[in-house]
Structure formats: structure tokens, C-alpha cells
Write a structure and sequence with these properties.
The structure holds two protein chains of two kinds.
Chain A: E1 2-4, H1 5-9, E2 12-13, H2 18-28, E3 31-36, E4 46-55, E5 63-69, E6 72-78, E7 88-92, E8 108-110, E9 113-115, E10 118-119, H3 147-150, E11 157-161, H4 172-181, E12 186-187, E13 205-208, E14 219-226, H5 235-243, H6 251-263, E15 268-271, E16 279-283, E17 289-291, E18 297-299, E19 305-309, E20 312-316, E21 320-321, E22 334-340, H7 343-353, H8 358-363, H9 372-387, E23 390-398, E24 406-410, H10 412-418, H11 424-433, E25 437-442, E26 445-449, H12 460-471, H13 494-508, E27 512-513, E28 519-520, H14 522-527, E29 545-546, H15 551-563, E30 569-578, E31 586-595, H16 612-625, E32 634-636, E33 643-653, E34 656-664, H17 668-672, E35 678-684, E36 710-719, H18 724-734, E37 739-748, E38 757-766, H19 775-791, E39 794-796
Parallel strand pairs in A: 13-16, 27-30
Antiparallel strand pairs in A: 1-11, 2-12, 3-11, 4-5, 4-7, 5-6, 7-10, 8-9, 14-22, 14-23, 15-22, 16-19, 17-18, 19-20, 20-21, 24-26, 25-26, 28-29, 30-31, 31-35, 32-33, 33-34, 34-35, 36-38, 36-39, 37-38
Helix pairs in contact in A: 6-9, 10-12, 13-16, 18-19
Chain B: H1 2-18, H2 22-33, H3 38-45, H4 51-90, H5 109-123, E1 127-128, E2 134-136, H6 137-140, H7 151-154, E3 160-161, E4 164-169, H8 175-183, E5 188-197, E6 208-218, H9 223-238, E7 245-252, E8 255-267, E9 272-274, E10 279-289, H10 291-296, E11 305-312, H11 313-321, H12 334-340
Parallel strand pairs in B: 1-5
Antiparallel strand pairs in B: 2-4, 3-4, 5-6, 6-11, 7-8, 8-9, 8-10, 10-11
Helix pairs in contact in B: 1-2, 1-4, 5-11
The chains are: A alpha+beta, B alpha+beta.
Chain lengths: ~800, ~350
């Protein structure tokens, strides 16, 4: 909300300057988003006197004006229809920045005639909407008067942000009341002197609400006016509305807006001559239509509060008036409406129809019912002053509700919740200053009654906040939180530890950690198995499906980086994937992709593109870091559909898939627009069994052999298609008590190897714990190794 | 015999002197001391001499042999030294060559800062709790004292789940407060980091971001503890001796009293320095847990009390590490990750300092 300092000072007698006020507002809980010196962007703009007007030689609509300014006389080409000899306007010299456009004004030729400087319209100066002509200040102002002064601009402008609980502060008066309570001045009460009735209102108001609807409208007050002239409102009013960001429209409309901003009391005026019959309030039915003052037709839902005359709906209660009964310059007779509406119904209506209005903002947060009747005089006085005419009596339908509540309060509550200490007098005075009625019951106990304008207070904790913010949160003593134990134990769950360790393990392998959105595009999700969960109101079609895998976003990142000429990429993320809507359906996963070269191009090594085994190594590193026991995992050569069927695998523990890896399916290349093949892996961290709780961290005893090991190499021809892993496992298992280690050190096909075969060579280390191996031992072991290899289709290479 | 030995000695010493390399020197040694070497022969021939000459001749042979051996060893040392010199001259490595690469990735600032925050609060005795990203209206709003249809819900720009009217993407990590209080008995002291979502996207908003929630429930914790806890946190996190905070009254449905917290800072054209200056920068929202929230989870607000806070992790990362734009966090731009990322060995701890 925006208002000027002079406006605030009309409600608060104070000598405080803007900075002091801002500081106090902040301490009270009203956030000051800015203090802007209104008109500061008009430096250099000043009153100029039009001392000559001639026709432009080359254009019918343009005039050549001689403008006298403090800095000299200038020739200006002007297209405004209202320019006239002798008028005074706002002159912008060359080099000034036009506020509305932000452009620097340069000397230029317009239709062949040089123009230096400009006479400005209200819109060009950002002070109004008028662009039909230039500002005409009449004859009075002195040439050279700064524009801000000549235009009567008030400043500075406060821009404050009000929390949703404080409907009472959506008004300059409410803000002033807070400041007065905090001791920054004396509150000035609004003018609610009785405006005498000159005639009797004949308008009748009926409530047609069903009983089960509760009280959609507790009170509806009307007052009629006749013989009005609805012209432009006075300059001071226009200026204050403009400063707060509203467009001045006509005196009647401006009065309603003024009341909204000044007192937080939204009003509505109907053109009485356009109303037919009595007013009826009822709830809308689905499908009914309403043409709003904004010129838009709204289709209503069930249960919205509407105000009708005999022709139909004329107003959407608490939100927006109707076009059919709106006031214009021909209006002479009006009906003023002052009402209370159910905040929740108003909020729901506004949200469903997507209407943001100053009235809705206030109605849905709650208004001060005690001001309903006084505002019939407050508004009447203003209408009569601005428009002339006469007022009727005040017609009240329903009853003014009393929202005040009584709260028993003990001052030790303040100490208990904030650590602050107060005296009984401080409690009494502080709450009274905020408008509470306080009765002391002795021993630090009070009976506190809330003011009619506060709807956010119901229990002692609420009063604690009131007293604490009056005192200032700065006064609250700081106390360190100390832990109970001398040394803190482990605070992370297994899952959190896994996340942390896996992140570091993968980064140590050269992958960069990404952090991608939890939602992806439908086709991307579809490519990775499809989304189990979608958003009902996505921010865009690209961000609609809750990710079924970490890979789609990473796969998309590959293409984006490739487009930026980054070709060797390795990304990972550790985060949730969503397999359903229940809390347990969110699964912690580590996923990663690699593209381009494995390692950078380097003089020492041959270039190699990434392949499925790089992804396998990543998966293994993640599994190991997460605490999976790698030896107990089974590797199978079939990964789900987003992987290349011949270049992928899964690691299983029993029947549970713990990880999958491989080259991503070539069919995805087009969807994601990769330059080249991409490999990836996924590790399902939550599926890894919890580590067994052990009583001791002691390692098993180290067993070493005192006897010499023997190293033997074996080269085999193996049928293509036989898995190297099977061969290694066979060799390892051939002589379990002697084979200490098996390393596959050569895999080769080509010259010297028969067609359909692959040569694989393993280095085997044999060692016994109890003796030095004899030639005979070694012979026997070799024989068993060769036999075991043979059993899986390998023949010893001779 | 004596003459013969004299001339042999001369020849041998000359041969040692003339040997060009170790191999030639060894040939000289073999030619003198080998089975059929000249000195070996001379020693053998001693037996044929008459006994009176034998003794003198034997002494002389030994003299020649000793002189020869000494010369030989000296020459050998010489030759070895020059051979080593020659080898060193021949063997070079261009040490300006780039080393073999050892790939090292970078960790994302969000994860790193989450660990920094965890380290600090762990030191204050907080445990780490978690909750799901997809949660229901009860945990996200109702239990947190958001009245149905209240405008405060509008401020949250909630994402809803298709086909499930009651399910949302959590708009804050405060859901974990409720889950924790429902699952465990007080006293409680937890933080809950995680993803949060709001249907909002512009220069300073992202539809997904990260928060950390804090919750303390016991019989004595008041707002002064909240203030002290946050001040201790700010000093530790920003690694400054002083990082003054300002608590401003504010409004959250689930706390009463409520406050927003600013940290003192100084803005220059290039950077933002936290902990000094005349400006304030908002870093989090907090307050005393609302009595209605306590009632909603079955705790008596006259018996139990405590504070809660919620802080933007991404925002804290931006402030501490000078990262200008929130949206860049989630773009997976290699250049950004390499620049703002952390090396995997930098594990934040309070004893070693959080950041290098």
C-alpha cells in the first residue's frame, strides 16, 4: 500500500520525519518496502510560458511554440490540441529523461523544423493518465517553478507491505493508529460529524439467504443522495490517489477509493436512476453472469454473495460493482452502500473469479464493523463537499456485528514466551494504546477485550505478540541454545548419510553435481518409464510430470551444454524420484550421465568415448559409498527400456534391483537432441539394506601368509558372447583355498584369434597359508583352473 | 723376474689408465687377475724360483698387485662417475608437460550449504528430520493453523497434484514440524532441510527451491532462545565474529509471536558483505510455535512451548558465496557448476571451519 507523508500526518500529529516513521513501522511489524520522493524524477522539469504559437509549415496538426523558461527561450514543435498562447505548462529541456519512457530527450527535427525541448502531458511525467493534451497549469505559476511544486506533488511516498492478519493497517488511519500507540504522535479521529438527512430514503433492502448459509451479510447500510454533480475531484484528492497508484476517475468514484485507502472502509455507489426496484442480497447460482465495472463478464459459481435489483445482479458483494448501475459524469442521484460481508465467501469468490481489487483485499481480511455507521456520515460529508446535492437518512438492514472478544491474560505469559519482563502498568498502558479495553484483576492478571478492528486475536499468545512488538523485539534477551550432551552423537539418518557419501564419491570420480527441478516435461517422463504423479496446475507444460527418474533432466542438460560447445560432460544428482503420491513412494536415488570423451584429450592417452562400463563404474562407486556389499550383488545384462538392450546391466540383491546402468537407448537421442551417445546410471539408495547394528567397530583379525605367493598367467580363447565375469568367477572358484586374486588383464580379438573367439588373459596369484607351494601343488591348481575355465567355454591358448 | 715384474707393472698401470669405459677396464682386470691373467701367471711362477729369491719376488708380486688393484678401483670410480654423468645428460623429462588428468567433479552449492547448516545445528544438539515433497493439505496448511480459505494460503502459490484434491507439493518445510511432533514426544530439537515448491517463477523466484526448518519444543524455550540460536547460527554460518541480526514482527499462521529476521550487511557495486554496514537483508522467518499448532498435534500449549524457523537454503548460499541469480542454480550449466561448485574433499565441519 502506498501513501504520502502529508496524508499520514493528516491522521497523526507528529514531528517525526520519514526515516523515524519508517524505523518505527518496521519495529511494529509493518514492512516498509520503500520511501520514494515523489517527483524526484522531475528534476530539471519546470514551468514554461507559451509566448508564441504558429502553424507548422509542413503539418496541419503540429504547432510551433515559443516557450519562455528560466534558461532562455526555446522553439518547440507541439502536437497537443490544447496548446494555446499564454498558457503555462511543464517544459522538459533537452537532455532530460522522460519518466514514462525512460528516454533521453534530444534536439530533433520534426517534419523539417527543429524542436528543442518538450511540453509534457501528465502521462509522460508518470503523474496521471491524461495523454489527450499537455498539462495546462493556467496562468498563475511563475516561470521556472520546479515541476513537482507547480504540480502540487506530495511526498515522500511510503510503500508498505501489510501482513494478511492486519486488515486494519490496510488504511492510512490504521497505520497512524499503530504509530500513535508506539508513542510517535497523537491520532487524529476522522470527521464523522452527523450529516443531517434532507429526505427519506425509499430504497428497501432484502436478505434472501438460505438459513444454512450462515450470515453472508450481517449488515447492509444505504444512504441516498440527490442533486449531485459528478465532475472531477479536486487536485489534492487526485494527487493522493495518484500517489497511491490509483487513477482518479470522477468525484464519486474517487470518494469510494479514498475511503478505502484512508479509513480501510470500502464503499460502493450505485447510480440511483439506473436501479430498478428494491435491492436484494442472495447467493449466486452456478452459471449466472455478471458484467463488472471493468467491462468483463464473469460467470459465477454457486454461493457467491450478489446484490440484485429487479433487473438482475448489479454488484458482486465486497469485490466489484456492476457496469449497469455504475456512475458517470451524468449521474445526479446515487445510493451509497456500506456493508459487511463474510470474509471467507468473499475470498473464495475473488479467488475463483480471479479478481484482485482493493475492496476484496480488505473484505476478505475483515473490516471494522464499528465504523460502518460512522462512515455513512464520513462519506456523506465528502460527497456533499465534492458534488453538492443533499443526503437522505441512513437505512440499516441487518445488525452491526460485534467481533470483540475477551481474553484472560497473565503477564507471566509474556515472560514465559519471550523472556521479557513487564510491569502491570506497562501491560495496561500498552494494550490500551492499541485500542484494547483492559481491566486489571490483580497479581499480574487482566481481562482484555480486543478492539473492533482486530480480527487476528483470540488467545494470550496473541497479546504476547502485541506487547512484545510495542516494546520492540530488540529488547528480547538473547540466550544461547545449549545441547544436553557434552558431545553430540550422529545426527544423520542412514539415508541422509548415504546421500552425503554418494555425492562425494561421485564427485571424486569426476562427475559434477546438478540440482534439477523435481518436475519434467511429459514426453521426457514418458521416455523414462512415465510419471506416476502429475501436477494439476503446472507453471508450464515443460514442468508438469513429477520425475520418475533423475535421468531426463540430466539428459536434457547434456544437450543444453553441448549447444554451448561443452562436449565432455559428466553430471549426477542425488534426490527423490516419485513413484506415487504416498510419502513412501518418494525414493532417494543417485543418477548420473556421461557424454563425450572419458577423461579429457591428453598427450598421454588415447582418446576414448564414454561407454557403458564408465556408467557401471559410477554405479559401483555409488553403491559402495552407500554401503552396499558389492560381492553379494548379482549382475544381470538386462536394464529397463531407457537403456540400450545390449549395453546395459542391473545390479540385484536377491530380486531387488539396487542399480542399473548402461548406454542410454539410441531412440532417446532425437528426443533430447544429444550430439552423441550418452551413458547413465541409477542407484536406488533406499533399497540398500540398513547396515546391521554392531556392538563393536573392531575389524576382523588380519590373516597373512608367511609363505611365498606364486603368480601365473593363463590365456584363453573364449566364445564370443561368454561373459568375462563368468570366466573370472570360474577361475576364482576353481581352487578356493589357494587363489588369492584373479585379474583379467587382456581382452583381445583379431589377428591370431580364431573367428568367433575372444582371447582373454588372467593373472592368478596362488598362495597357501600353511606351506610353500610345491611344483606339484602348482600343477594341480593350474589343471583345476583350466578345467573350470573350460566348463564355461574357454580353452587354454597354447 | 724383478725386471719382468717392473715392466708388467708399468704395462698394467698404463692399460688401466688407457681403459675408455667400464667394460675395457674389466678386460684389463681379467687380463691381469683372471685365471690366465698376467699377474696370476706371475704369482704361479713364483713356485719355480729358488727359495731365497721366492720371498723377495713374492713381496714384489704383491706390491704390483696392490698398486694395480688400487689403480683399477680408482679408475673404476672415475669411469662410473662419468658414466652416470653421461646418463644424466641423456635422460630428461619435459616437466612442463601437463600431468595425467585425475578427474574431479564439483558439488552443488545447495548440498554443500545444507551440510554447513547441518554441521552448525548438530553442534547445538539438533537432529535432522525429513518429510515427503508431496504432502497433504493437513500437514501443509490445516495443522499449521492456516484457516480454510484464508488469504494466507493464497500467498503460498500452491502446486496441486492432479487427481488428488487434498495433495500438494509442500510449499514449505514446516510440514516436517507437524510430522515430527506427531511421531515423537517432546522435548524435540530438529532441523529439516529439503525441497519446497511454489507456483511462481520470475527473476527472483523459482518454482522449486530449498528450505531448512528448525523446531525446538520443550518446557522452557522462549523467544530469547530463538534469538540467541539464530545469532549463534549466523556468526557460525557467515564465519564472522559478529553478524548482527534484527528481528521484525511479522505474521505466519503457525507462529505467535512471529518475526522476520534480517542480517546486517553492506552492499557495494560488486559485492555484498554480511556482518557489517548499514543495510539489512532478510534471511528467514521464525517465531514461537502457535498454541493452535501445538493443540493440533495433541500438545498442551500451557505445558509445552518452543520456537520454529524456516530459512531459504539457496538464498543463504547466494548470500555467503556471492551467487547472483537463483535461477542459475537449477540450470545445470557446466561452467556455473565448475565455478560455484565445491571440491568433494571439502566436508564442512565446525571444528575445521565450514568453508575454505
Amino acid at each position: 500500500m502506498k501513501f504520502t507523508l502529508p496524508w499520514l500526518k493528516a491522521h497523526l500529529l507528529t514531528d517525526a520525519d520519514a526515516a523515524t516513521i519508517a524505523e518505527r513501522l518496521t519495529a511494529l511489524g509493518i514492512e516498509v518496502e520503500g520511501i520514494e520522493p515523489r517527483g524526484s524524477d522531475l528534476d530539471g522539469f519546470a514551468v514554461g510560458h507559451v509566448t508564441g504559437v504558429r502553424q507548422h509549415p509542413n503539418a496541419d496538426r503540429l504547432r510551433l511554440c515559443t516557450v519562455e523558461t528560466k534558461a532562455g527561450t526555446f522553439e518547440v514543435v507541439c502536437g497537443a490540441p490544447n496548446v494555446r498562447l499564454g498558457m503555462k505548462g511543464i517544459f522538459a529541456p533537452e537532455g532530460s529523461v522522460i519518466p514514462a519512457s525512460g528516454q533521453v530527450l534530444k534536439r530533433s527535427k520534426i517534419r523539417g523544423v527543429e524542436s528543442s525541448g518538450m511540453l509534457c502531458s501528465a502521462r509522460e511525467l508518470n503523474i496521471g493518465d491524461d495523454h489527450d493534451g499537455i498539462i495546462d497549469l493556467g496562468d498563475e505559476p511563475v516561470v521556472g517553478t520546479p515541476a513537482a511544486v507547480a504540480l502540487g506533488l506530495e511526498g515522500p511516498v511510503f510503500d508498505i507491505s501489510i501482513t494478511p492478519n492486519r486488515s486494519d493497517c490496510f488504511a492510512v488511519h490504521g497505520v497512524a493508529r499503530e504509530l500513535a500507540a508506539a508513542g510517535l504522535g497523537r491520532l487524529v479521529q476522522p470527521n464523522t460529524n452527523e450529516v443531517p438527512a434532507r429526505f427519506a430514503s425509499r430504497l428497501r433492502v432484502h436478505f434472501d439467504f438460505p438459513e444454512e448459509a450462515g450470515t453472508p451479510c450481517p449488515v447492509f447500510v444505504t444512504r441516498e443522495f440527490r442533486g449531485l454533480t459528478n465532475g472531477a475531484s479536486p487536485a489534492w484528492l487526485q494527487e493522493r490517489l495518484a500517489a497511491s497508484g490509483l487513477r482518479p476517475i470522477s468525484a464519486l468514484v474517487d470518494v469510494t477509493n479514498w475511503s478505502t485507502l484512508d479509513m480501510g472502509r470500502p464503499l460502493h455507489v450505485f447510480d440511483a436512476d439506473k436501479l430498478v426496484g428494491d435491492l436484494r442480497l442472495r447467493l449466486s447460482k452456478a452459471g449466472e453472469e455478471f458484467l463488472g465495472l471493468d467491462g468483463k463478464t464473469y460467470t459465477l459459481d454457486d454461493g457467491m454473495i450478489v446484490i440484485c435489483d429487479d433487473t438482475g445482479i448489479v454488484s458482486l458483494a465486497g469485490i466489484m460493482g456492476g457496469e449497469s448501475t455504475g456512475c458517470d459524469e451524468t449521474t445526479t442521484n446515487v445510493v451509497l452502500e456500506i456493508a459487511m460481508f463474510d470474509p471467507i465467501r468473499t475470498a473464495v469468490t475473488g479467488r475463483k473469479l480471479g479478481i484482485e481489487s482493493d475492496a476484496r483485499t480488505r473484505f476478505e481480511r475483515g473490516l471494522d464493523p464499528a465504523f460502518v455507521l460512522p462512515s455513512a456520515d464520513y462519506a456523506a460529508a465528502m460527497i456533499l463537499e465534492l458534488c453538492g446535492g443533499e443526503a437522505s437518512d441512513v437505512v440499516v438492514a441487518g445488525q452491526v456485528p460485534d467481533p470483540r472478544v475477551s481474553i484472560p491474560f497473565a503477564k507471566r505469559e509474556l515472560t514465559r514466551l519471550t523472556g521479557l519482563e513487564v510491569t502491570d502498568a506497562e501491560v495496561m498502558d500498552g494494550l490500551a494504546a492499541l485500542g484494547f479495553a483492559v481491566a486489571s484483576e490483580g497479581e499480574g492478571r487482566f481481562e482484555v477485550t480486543t478492539p473492533s478492528w482486530r480480527h487476528d486475536l483470540s488467545q494470550p499468545a496473541d497479546l504476547v505478540e502485541e506487547l512484545a512488538r510495542l516494546r520492540g523485539f530488540d529488547a528480547i534477551p538473547s540466550v544461547s541454545v545449549r545441547r544436553d550432551e557434552a558431545v553430540s552423537g550422529r545426527v544423520l539418518t542412514t539415508s541422509q548419510l548415504r546421500r552425503s557419501r554418494v555425492r562425494r564419491a561421485l564427485a571424486a570420480r569426476g562427475l559434477d553435481e546438478a540440482c534439477t527441478f523435481s518436475f519434467v516435461a511429459d514426453d521426457q517422463a514418458e521416455a523414462f518409464g512415465g510419471a506416476a504423479v502429475r501436477l494439476a496446475n503446472p507453471i508450464s507444460a515443460d514442468l508438469v510430470a513429477m520425475r520418475p527418474s533423475l535421468l531426463p533432466a540430466l539428459a536434457a542438460a547434456v544437450a543444453k551444454n553441448q549447444a554451448r560447445a561443452q562436449s565432455d560432460l559428466a553430471f549426477f544428482e542425488v534426490g527423490a524420484v516419485y513413484t506415487g503420491t504416498k510419502p513412501g513412494d518418494q525414493e532417494l536415488t543417485a543418477g548420473g550421465v556421461r557424454a563425450g570423451l572419458a577423461g579429457e584429450r591428453h598427450w598421454s592417452a588415447k582418446e576414448r568415448a564414454v561407454d557403458a562400463l564408465d556408467a557401471k563404474a559410477d554405479a559401483l562407486a555409488a553403491l559402495e559409498a552407500a554401503g552396499a556389499r558389492i560381492d553379494s550383488l548379482k549382475l544381470e545384462c538386462a536394464a529397463p527400456g531407457h537403456y540400450h538392450p545390449g549395453r546395459s546391466g542391473v545390479f540385484k540383491l536377491g530380486r531387488t534391483v539396487l542399480a542399473q546402468f548402461g548406454e542410454l537407448h539410441p531412440k532417446l537421442q532425437k528426443l533430447f537432441d544429444w550430439k552423441d551417445r550418452v551413458v547413465g546410471f541409477e542407484v536406488f539408495l533406499d533399497r540398500i539394506p540398513e547396515p546391521r547394528a554392531a556392538k563393536t567397530r573392531a575389524r576382523p583379525k588380519l590373516v597373512t601368509s608367511a609363505f611365498q605367493p606364486v603368480d601365473r598367467d593363463f590365456a584363453f580363447f573364449v566364445d564370443k558372447g561368454v561373459a568375462a565375469g563368468d570366466l573370472v568367477a570360474a577361475v576364482r572358484g576353481a581352487v578356493p583355498d589357494l587363489v588369492q586374486n584373479v585379474a583379467l588383464f587382456d581382452v583381445y580379438a583379431g589377428k591370431g584369434v580364431p573367428e568367433g573367439k575372444v582371447s582373454m588373459a588372467v593373472a592368478v596369484r596362488l598362495q597357501a597359508l600353511d606351506r610353500t607351494l610345491t611344483e606339484a601343488d602348482i600343477e594341480e591348481a593350474s589343471g583345476r583352473i583350466v578345467a573350470a575355465a573350460q566348463a564355461c567355454g574357454a580353452t587354454l591358448r597354447q | 723376474m724383478a725386471d719382468r715384474l717392473d715392466s708388467l707393472s708399468g704395462e698394467l698401470l698404463a692399460a688401466v689408465d688407457a681403459a675408455a669405459d667400464l667394460k675395457a677396464l674389466d678386460d684389463v682386470r681379467v687380463a691381469a687377475l683372471g685365471k690366465k691373467g698376467s699377474l696370476t701367471d706371475a704369482a704361479k711362477s713364483l713356485g719355480q724360483l729358488p727359495p731365497e729369491e721366492r720371498r723377495e719376488a713374492g713381496r714384489r708380486v704383491n706390491e704390483v698387485k696392490d698398486a694395480f688393484t688400487a689403480a683399477l678401483n680408482a679408475k673404476k670410480a672415475d669411469l662410473e662417475a662419468s658414466a652416470l654423468d653421461a646418463r644424466l645428460m641423456a635422460e630428461t623429462v619435459d616437466v612442463t608437460l601437463p600431468v595425467r588428468p585425475q578427474p574431479m567433479g564439483r558439488l552443488h552449492p545447495v548440498g554443500q550449504v545444507m551440510e554447513e547448516i547441518t554441521a552448525i545445528f548438530a553442534d547445538m544438539g539438533f537432529a535432522v528430520a525429513e518429510g515427503p515433497d508431496i504432502d497433504d493439505d493437513f500437514h501443509n496448511f490445516t495443522a499449521l493453523n492456516f484457516p480454510p480459505e484464508h488469504p494466507a494460503r493464497d500467498m503460498h502459490d500452491t502446486f496441486f497434484i492432479e487427481g488428488h484434491k487434498e495433495l500438494v507439493l509442500r510449499t514449505h518445510t514446516s510440514t516436517v514440524q507437524i510430522r515430527t511432533m506427531l511421531a515423537q514426544k517432546p522435548p524435540l530439537r530438529i532441523i529439516a532441510p529439503g525441497r519446497t515448491f511454489r507456483c511462481d517463477s520470475d527473476a527472483t523466484h523459482s518454482p522449486m527451491f530449498h528450505q531448512v526448518e528448525g523446531l525446538v519444543i520443550d518446557r522452557t524455550t522462549h523467544m530469547g532462545h530463538l534469538k540467541g540460536c539464530l545469532e549463534d547460527f549466523a556468526r557460525a554460518f557467515f564465519e564472522r565474529d559478529d553478524a548482527p541480526l534484527r528481528l521484525r514482527p511479522s505474521f505466519f499462521p503457525f507462529t505467535e509471536p512471529s518475526a522476520e529476521v534480517d542480517v546486517r550487511c553492506r552492499r557495494t557495486k560488486e559485492e555484498l558483505i554480511v556482518g557489517e554496514g548499514d543495510d539489512w537483508l532478510e534471511i528467514l522467518g521464525c517465531g514461537m510455535v502457535h498454541p493452535n499448532v501445538l493443540r493440533n498435534v495433541g500438545l498442551d500449549p500451557d505445558e509445552w512451548q518452543g520456537f520454529a524457523f524456516g530459512m531459504g537454503i539457496d538464498r543463504m548460499a547466494m548470500l555467503k558465496y556471492g551467487i547472483p541469480d537463483l535461477r542459475t542454480f537449477f540450470e545445470t550449466d557446466l561452467r556455473w557448476l565448475k565455478h560455484y561448485g565445491f571440491v568433494p574433499l571439502d566436508t564442512p565441519t565446525t571444528f575445521a571451519g565450514l568453508a575454505r
